[in-house]
């Protein structure tokens, strides 16, 4: 089983190194790292560490990533394209954040061996709650102020005004709107389709979209991939406390409990200390 790991990160080069070490890479595995363009020091540190690694590639022209902006999606697509530009042979590609942990690499790969080329993608159609993200313009997400109170207030006001005057984008019909977590594990068959079909026109339809990374792959899969080829559980454990837009940090005990869950191989998110503790636990078993 050849797995390509796509790691999207912006801080803590030591934690990224720990994560990569924990993946127990074989000669058939590959890693692509996108480091936020706002973190040049982290990029230099990782380039120094992996300058001689033939199966680890660091994206040379990264984007500045902003929460809920189109830049999140652009970073993911840059990593996916890097696999093809470097002619990497893989069976599955797995998108990870720099604060993820793969709980059991061997079991993860074994599971994928019997997955019959299905892709694992959080996928649902709560259109009534989220159609505004797609068919209204949001001009305040893809910048460094996107998480500030002022930017959020301006965003909410702009969306409300568009509803009031009946302004609606013509990029997608309501029945085409799907959503889910951005984190995925895609089969080579489906990654090929995404790579071949996604062009500037497709990306343009998602520009000025709120949280486009939580809709892009779901909506394209709904159009291009048969439903029976998609598993709607993305093999991950993520805990969002009630009312929070970001997941909580998991403890070592959390990880030990999660690893016992069926078909749950990746946990998000963890600190560097917890990741180190977990790696030590696994080495002692």
Strand neighbour order, sheet with most strands: 3-2-1-4-7-6-8
Structural class assignment: alpha/beta
Helical amount: 40-55%
Question: Helix count, per DSSP?
Answer: 11
GO biological process, one term: chondroitin sulfate proteoglycan biosynthetic process
Protein name: Peptide O-xylosyltransferase
Keywords: Disulfide bond, Endoplasmic reticulum, Glycoprotein, Glycosyltransferase, Golgi apparatus, Membrane, Metal-binding, Signal-anchor, Transferase, Transmembrane, Transmembrane helix
Subcellular location: Endoplasmic reticulum membrane; Golgi apparatus membrane
Summarize the structure.
The protein has 285 residues and is of the alpha/beta class.
Description of the molecule:
With 285 residues, the protein is α/β, with parallel strands linked by helices. The protein folds into two domains: 3-127 and 175-284, Spore Coat Polysaccharide Biosynthesis Protein SpsA, Chain A; 130-165, no CATH class. It is 41% helix and 14% strand. It has helices at 13-22, 40-49, 70-85, 105-113, 127-135, 149-165, 188-197, 200-206, 216-224, 252-258, 272-284, and strands at residues 3-9, 30-35, 56-58, 92-97, 100-102, 119-121, 184-187, 230-231, 236-238, 266-268. Strands 3-2-1-4-7-6-8 form a seven-stranded mixed beta sheet. Helix 1 (13-22) links the parallel strand 1 (3-9) and strand 2. It is globular. It starts with a strand and ends with a helix.
């Amino acid at each position: 089983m050849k797995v390509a790991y796509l790691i999207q990160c912006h801080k803590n080069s030591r934690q990224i190194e720990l994560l990569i070490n924990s993946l127990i890479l074989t000669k058939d595995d590959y890693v692509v790292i996108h480091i936020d363009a706002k973190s040049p020091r982290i990029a230099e540190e990782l380039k120094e560490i992996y300058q001689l690694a033939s199966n680890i590639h660091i994206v040379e022209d990264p984007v500045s990533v902003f929460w809920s902006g189109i830049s999140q999606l652009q970073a993911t697509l840059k990593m996916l394209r890097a696999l093809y530009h470097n002619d990497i042979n893989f069976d599955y590609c797995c998108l990870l954040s720099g604060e993820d942990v793969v709980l059991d690499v061997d079991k993860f790969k074994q599971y994928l061996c019997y997955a019959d080329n299905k892709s694992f993608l959080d996928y649902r159609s709560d259109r009534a709650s989220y159609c505004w993200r797609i068919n209204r313009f949001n001009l305040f997400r893809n910048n460094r102020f996107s998480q500030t109170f002022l930017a959020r207030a301006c965003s909410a006001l702009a969306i409300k005004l568009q509803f009031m005057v009946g302004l609606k984008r013509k990029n997608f019909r309501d029945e085409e709107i799907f959503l889910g977590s951005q984190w995925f594990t895609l089969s080579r068959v489906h990654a090929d389709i995404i790579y071949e079909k996604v062009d500037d026109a497709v990306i343009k339809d998602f520009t000025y979209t709120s949280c486009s990374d939580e809709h892009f792959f779901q909506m394209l899969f709904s159009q291009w991939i048969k439903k029976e080829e998609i598993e709607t559980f993305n093999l991950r454990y993520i805990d969002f406390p009630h009312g929070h837009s970001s997941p909580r940090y998991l403890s070592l005990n959390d990880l030990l409990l999660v690893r016992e869950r069926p078909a749950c191989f990746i946990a998000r998110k963890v600190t560097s200390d917890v990741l180190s503790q977990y790696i030590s636990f696994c080495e002692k078993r």
